[in-house]
Amino acid sequence: MINESLAATSDTLFSVAVGLYSLAVVAFCAELAFGRKVAPARELVAAGGGTAERAVPAQDDEPARARRWGLVAMGLTIVGALVHAGVLITRGSATGRLPWGNMYEFGTAVVLVAVVVYLVLALRTPSLRHIGIFVLAPVVLSMVGIGLFLYAQAGPLVAALRSAWLAIHVTTAILGFGIFFVSGIASVMYLVRSRYEAKVAAGEVPLSRIVHRLPSAAALDRTAHRTVVFGFPIWTFAVIAGAIWAESAWGRFWGWDPKETWAFIAWVVYAAYLHARTTAGWRGRPSAWVNVMGLGVMIFNLLYVNMVSTGLHSYGGVS
Amino acid sequence: MSSTLLRWWRSLTAMRTALILLFLLAVAAIPGSLLPQRSLSQSRVTTYFADHPDLAPVLDKLFLFDVFSSPWFAAIYLLLFISLIGCVVPRALEHGRAVFAAPPPAPRHLHRLPDNGDVPTTLGPTTALDVVEEELRVRRFRVVRRDGAHGPELSAEKGFLKETGNVVFHLALLALLLGLAGGKLWGYEGSILVTEGDRFCNTFQQYDNSSKGAFVDPAGMSPLCVTLEDFKAEYEENLTAASFTADIAYGLAGSASRNTTIGVNSPLRFDGDRVYVTGHGFSPVFSVTFPNGDSFTDISAPFLPSDTATMSSQGALKLPDVPGSDEQLALEGFFAPTGSVQQGVLTSIDPRPLDPQVALFVYEGYLGLDSGLPQNVYTIDQTQIDRGTLDRVGQANLSLGESTTLEDGTVITFSGLKQFAAMQVSHDPGQVWVLVSAIAILVGLLGMLLLRRERVFARVAAGPDGAGTVLRMGALTRGSADTAPRFTALTDDVAAALARRARTEENPSS
Ligand code: HEM
């Protein structure tokens, strides 16, 4: 029995969450716009000398106006995340089940995890707050895409999904995916920032107001790495739990179904990232590219495998 | 010659090679997910051949429709396996030795370590190192004191579990590959459609489809027999399938049978075999009465669902032995559990059998069953129709209980309805092994990623102006980025402990 009014509330909250996140993006933009114009490159390089990281000092002394916008942006993001959680909670109670039984719900939950991961990072390490716009903009895009292309009416679960493993396998898949989402963004930011730092150090480009406010390349690299270290065991667990479930649902624990295949590929890519980061010659930019590739594989697995290829994971519910 | 071999072995067993091979395995899996695979769906492969008549045979030569059982996939798998052995086993042995060995001597230049610092103290060298040792032991380091070439020194180490995690992870990866391969070689799978009331036993002759590993001995298969007593499909209001359950009786041939219910997500596990319900459908039941008075009653055949949402199904019933005639008879048709006829065309509007109807074509003539060519039991052989050896002699839409009479007087009645279940029996002796390995992989991974291995070294030297002692400490940490704060905390604690000890030594009475 579906509670239609709760289901409708859930849909409304979805729009509200998208609205709040969009406002947060605007506020992050305003923070950038009111940020101090950065001093000419020459002086800084001279003052810093030596390594690239020192040549681009962190911008702690931001003007009050920018700071205020930054706080507004964070506040909007937090409220947005609460409303976003409300989307899933109301859907869950409308349907009387865990709210991740189709691609719409799955995607919505992944994005929520990404926002929460960002908030945790930003609250623990204030300089990471400045990647906010680069997290929130993809978040808004993803939400709009999910709402437009993956939306599915609240409904009961198909028989195959009525199992305790839904709570275990899909929850961990969502957590892993959400963490990798933020990690991938951190690596993209790292790629941008490290190139910028190298150029500034070589005196080739003037300081850029936007890139300048990003955390240092080293901090971004560290963030990307830590999030993968956190997400990788969770992902490993999700795949193992999927295999255990498949043994009772599909008659074998592993059968190279497209989703299984791409889950394995993603696993290998992230394992490669962790190794690359400790291998001479692969540290820094090459390993960051591997991480970005990992996120690409995850997204491909969600979109292509569910929507284009046919396999056993066809609970997408997109119609 | 032998040096070349050695060199090959070295490069094959390098960590980097193992990684590249793992990566290659992932890349090799990609075509398996983009092209249809025989192991997943034979019919999609057939469709692909029809759509790409030029390309498909080429791809097929490259095993691209059987990627996961192709020689090149197996080659990568095997190389990875060997590479892992060469890479992991020595590492595990070395780690085993290291667990029992003392921490290594302090490096000569402690100030070159990533974390290092000096702590001046008024205490003598031995007492100062005593204090450091105490501090480190409290932190559960293993500590060794030596009289090194550069003065008395101390080495301490902790965090072996990190390396243990690494070794466990990689050994478990090996075990998992072994388990997978074993399961493939000694495992088998068979599937069969069983109509309510029917029984099957675990032999390859009975299965409609089966596959088995190279080392499976058909004579050694567990003599499990299963009877499908009742099948139930339940639906939500909006016709989402809610559950499929099959009441079965099962047991080893010759012994008493037991009853149980299996369904989606809950297979029967018995004697090393697993029995699943993988699908279901309807078998319409017919009676046929021939002009001479002979009749067949309650004959049925499974009709395969072509759309699981409405359970509209298609199938055929063949009657090779018609009494009093040389001709053979066949019914082919469409079944709707809840039928709705629009402009003469029967469709199904509900997956539940609320108003079962069939749309039948009746054929008479030669079915070609003994032609020696394998036939699809769910359709009649189109070539016999094309050849004119099989003629359509009637057609009718029948609701349950209705009959149709052919020109020659044969009466065909749609007399009843049974359900069938698609069942699968699987045997995989490797799967528990794989599960244990997978859990070990996860545990090893957690140890490897979350633990730190730390080494701390300390050495004492005379103070710069001859008074007191300078304690120089250095640390080397693996598996953690922000080591500086922890090192500072350690040296602060050591400095505090040194100061405390200095005070008690000055006035021992207080
Ligand atoms: C070896 C077995 C399995 C693997 C490797 C696996 C892998 C995955 C992966 C990678 C995802 C993340 C979603 C994405 O990126 O698209 C996922 C989600 C999901 N899995 Fe599995 N899975 C397995 C078995 C199962 C089984 C047996 C079921 C249920 C019968 C199941 C149900 C789901 C559902 C409902 C989702 C989330 C929503 C969706 O994508 O539609 N999985 N799985």
Automatic annotation (TrEMBL), chain A:
The keyword Thylakoid does not apply. It comes from the Bacteria. It is a multi-pass membrane protein. The chain crosses the membrane at residues 12-34, 69-89, 101-121, 133-152, 164-192, 228-246, 261-276, 288-307. Residues 100-313 form the Cytochrome c assembly protein domain. GO terms for molecular function: heme binding. One of its GO terms (cellular component) is plasma membrane. It is found in: Membrane. This is Cytochrome c-type biogenesis protein CcsB.
UniProtKB/TrEMBL annotation, chain B:
Residues 15-481 form the ResB-like domain. One of its GO terms (cellular component) is membrane. It holds the Pfam family ResB. The chain crosses the membrane at residues 72-93, 167-186, 432-451. It is found in: Membrane. Keywords: Cytochrome c-type biogenesis, Membrane, Transmembrane, Transmembrane helix. Its main location: membrane. InterPro entries: Cyt_c_bgen_Ccs1/CcsB/ResB, ResB-like_domain. The keyword Plastid does not apply. It is a multi-pass membrane protein. This is Cytochrome c biogenesis protein. It comes from Klenkia marina.
